[in-house]
């Protein structure tokens, strides 16, 4: 939180992290540019274990880049990313374990078309963890209501089912936390609900999650905290009921007016 009164503040930070407790994930001063384009200009963020944080903001505000910088798909230019207190942004660090510990699912689910849903899910655990996790994968399919579909090929599944398989594929690596980047954005409206249900279920099971989303209703219902990004920073953050009903900053109000 920033010191001082409300007057003149240009960011509002109502994070739920108590001082002194260790966050599952902490970002401090994270900066990222592509050439002259400053995309993240000093991101501070703490995510507690079991917390669901939603990132909202206009297209181009840096949500995807922030997620990719968290699991080190993009190297950061400055600052630090800590997972359970360990610096995972240190240059030269073996990134395999980092990406196993932090799962990510994208808008484009990219299942291999020549493999069944189950084979898609088993691929990474087999290659990376050298483990046959068939029983575990089957249990994941059952847990997310896809047991009847696990031997089907992607083209025999709806977009919503394919995206749920992509989530299962990420979970099969036994991640400690999950990142979701607009995972319903490419789906027909009638298929969005079944994918959001998976997130609902993961939240109930206590998974730590960060979601970039345009689904404001979902963010309002399920996020523990909403972070509004603009101009390379988290401009305002707080509990969804406050952000959506009483945003304090003009930039937040303007954005919400444009999307709600
Ligand atoms: P959002 O997900 O909020 O729409 P992004 O993180 O995708 O925002 O993009 C933020 C900015 O970073 C945009 O200006 C985009 O063009 C730029 N950007 C993102 N990825 C790259 C990249 N790999 N190379 C160059 N510019 C990029
Ligand atoms: Mg994006």
UniProtKB/TrEMBL annotation:
UniProt-listed SMART domains: AAA
Keywords: Amino-acid transport, ATP-binding, Cell membrane, Membrane, Nucleotide-binding, Transport
PROSITE patterns: ABC_TRANSPORTER_1 (PS00211), ABC_TRANSPORTER_2 (PS50893)
Principal location listed in the UniProt entry: membrane
Segments forming domain ABC transporter: 25-256
InterPro entries xrefs: AAA+_ATPase, ABC_ATPase_HisP-typ, ABC_transporter-like_ATP-bd, ABC_transporter-like_CS, MetN_ABC_transporter-like, P-loop_NTPase
Pfam families referenced in this protein's UniProt entry, alphabetically: ABC_tran
Membrane-crossing segments per the record: none
Places the protein is found: Cell membrane
One annotated GO molecular function: ATP binding
Membrane topology category: Peripheral membrane protein
Family: Belongs to the ABC transporter superfamily.
PANTHER family on file: AMINO ACID IMPORT ATP-BINDING PROTEIN, GLUTAMATE_ASPARTATE IMPORT ATP-BINDING PROTEIN GLTL
Record-given protein name: Amino acid ABC transporter ATP-binding protein
Organism this protein belongs to: Roseobacter sinensis
